[in-house]
């Protein structure tokens, strides 16, 4: 696992009622659109146990430049443009730097 300046993204999205699974599938499609060598180390799309409309997204990148280049690429941007019509409200989230990463082997 690379060390140093890893960049992280945490987000919460609230789908329109009954559209959560469609939103989650679209987020996975966006991951695939970024390609294998994008600098993305980990990507999780999680559904909330206590809210049938909430999706949590977590990303870990080698650095911010890799994140910016990938998310601004046309294949990822094309998928991202399909997200807003599925949302009940603006996404919430934050950016950071990973302090510790452990992947049991």
From TrEMBL:
It comes from the Bacteria. This is Quinol monooxygenase YgiN. Residues 7-95 form the ABM domain. It holds the Pfam family ABM. GO terms for molecular function: monooxygenase activity. The keyword Ligase does not apply. Keywords: Monooxygenase, Oxidoreductase. Transmembrane segments: none annotated. InterPro entries: ABM_dom (IPR007138), Dimeric_a/b-barrel (IPR011008).
């Amino acid at each position: 696992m690379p060390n140093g300046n890893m960049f992280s993204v945490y987000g919460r999205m609230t789908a329109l009622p009954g559209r959560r699974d469609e939103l989650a599938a679209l987020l996975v499609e966006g991951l695939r659109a970024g390609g294998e060598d994008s600098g993305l180390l980990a990507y999780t799309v999680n559904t909330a146990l206590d809210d049938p409309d909430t999706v949590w997204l977590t990303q870990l990148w080698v650095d911010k430049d890799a994140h910016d280049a990938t998310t601004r690429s046309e294949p990822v941007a094309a998928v991202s443009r399909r997200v807003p019509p599925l949302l009940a409200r603006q996404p919430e989230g934050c950016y950071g730097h990973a302090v510790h990463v452990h992947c049991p082997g």
